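Exercise 7. Predict the structure of Lactose permease from Lentilactobacillus parafarraginis.
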Amino acid sequence: MASNSMSTGRRITSRLSYSFGAFGHDMFYATLSTYFMIFITSHLFDKSSSASNDKMIFYITFIIGALRIVELLIDPFIGNAIDNTNSRWGHFKPWILAGGTIGSVILAILFSNMLGLNESNPLMYLIVFAVLYITMDIFYSFKDVGFWSMIPAISFDSAEREKTATFARVGSNIGQNIVGVIVMPLVIFFSINKNSGQGDLRGWFMFAVTVGFISWFSAVIVAMGTKENDSLLRKNTEKTRLRDVFKVLARNDQLMWLSLTYCLYTAGIQITNASQLYYFTYIMGKPGQYSILMSINMVVGIFAVLTFPPLAQKFSRRNVFFACIATMLVAMLIFAFAGSNLLLVLIAAVLFYIPQPLVFLVVLMIISDSVEYGQLKFGHRDESLTLAVRPLLDKLGGAISNWVVGAAAVLAGMTAGATASSISTSGHVTFKLFMFGVPALLMLIGTFIFFKKVTLDEKEHAEIVDELEKTWHEHLETGGEESMQEIEKKVSATTTSYKSPIDGAYVNLADVSDENFSSGNMGKGFAIKPTDGKVYAPFDGTVEATFPTRHAIGLRSDTGILTLIHIGIGTVKMQGTGFVQYVQKGDHVKQGQELIEFWQPAIKKAGYDDTVMIVVTNFKDIKDFNYIKDAGDVTHGEEILNLSNPDNDDGQSTKS
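Solution. The predicted structure, encoded as tokens:
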């Protein structure tokens, strides 16, 4: 039990660290995607030259959009590079830390006039801006892909992924909203010129420095506090080649249809979100009240995130998605006619925000599940490459948003020197068309595609995981640090006494109701109808495989015997409920040491067979496979099999 307690402590630390990482990560993203454009359009240039300023705004927004479009071709290779990264810290942590450090420094520089370069040498400013922005965006991609790709590395179980992602989403919800709470107070606090509540360049620069530091510190916490769990299912026998990157993505039809849906959706919401501070500043004339909205969003967003697991369980992810879209469309309609009425604006904006973290989680879960979908369909697992799709689409949506919002601000006259009183009625109408009309159309088209084409749901994913688990014993035979030839040489002419791992009644393996075991596809061995829920090690050896559902375990004896102990039939669908695991992959165990404990009433209540199947998966490499007992009641520790390893005198293995 002590080892389990330690595991629980590590899990709590990991979740808290991951949540704080999401907090800092989304602070950074919200600053870049929502507030950078208002800095560019309203503060970077001297208000005395509106014509030249409009040209510079156009050039900058074009550069941002163009660079993000170009980077769409880079992001899949970023995911592939992370998949192929092997370090003592895992796949993801090096990239999270590097991306967090470099991105934070450049963010602060971008929120400045680069020592007046924007005015003294506009062309050089644009060149330096482009280089800095693409560098920051690439390293942000490494951090973003690495960060969110940790979810499928943590667990293969849909329910566990939902809990982990929900925990992180609470942190990200606070992060992205607290930026809105502090942005204007911080800008005003550090500004020399208050500028009618809009602040000045110094204020915006110090705001960016603050956000950059918090983002970097959160990356450090993730690197120090999280633990990437290893699993044989995550091992690929070959790496994805660069020339195959886009082929891997394109052949996963569920990933592609969901990507098209999310691209349209995220472009729509980013346009509206990025327009809200403009609305408070230039339509309501009260930018300071924007903090009220973001404070409310921060609180209600936490509750919205926490409702996702029960809502998804009761109504399904698809239904949650459709309900969220409907709510957001109603909110946009209210917002469009709210005018300067603060109460109506707050109601509409909050209704528009509440569904956003829920849609994010629906999309993230389906993309995560498409990892196994692609693995089962094509026989290759590509975690980071698949998860790279979401930040790629967020960037595309951000590029579209920057173009639309930049154009809306210029066309409506919401640039440097403008105030709410200087914006004309036609300017109001133009801005609202961009803020509400365009996003609504994009979201409706995306929802139609989701309805018609995206079919991967919780039930299908559970079936996929079940199929993958049935072949994990093959990974045991090829996994491990030693080859089978090395193992056979080491244990030449030795025997292994295989003890019963559980109390109960002996059952012939051919008589169990799971065809994969009864047919011998999973290996050669026996089964036990348990009278007790404790599973013990049948020999001295090493834990080679653990499962997220905790219903099975793979062991390698010190003499080279590979075995799989599988509790129940269909119990993978219980998603770990009623099972407690006391060891981890890589642990060395002694014969008789408790490995797993399960609650039989839970299995029976769920309607599943609790028969325990025990198979030797490398039985073909064993010279003599002798049954000491093949009927009656057995107790754990009682000898069931006597196995003789291959005689390697002639270098050959005798097959049974």
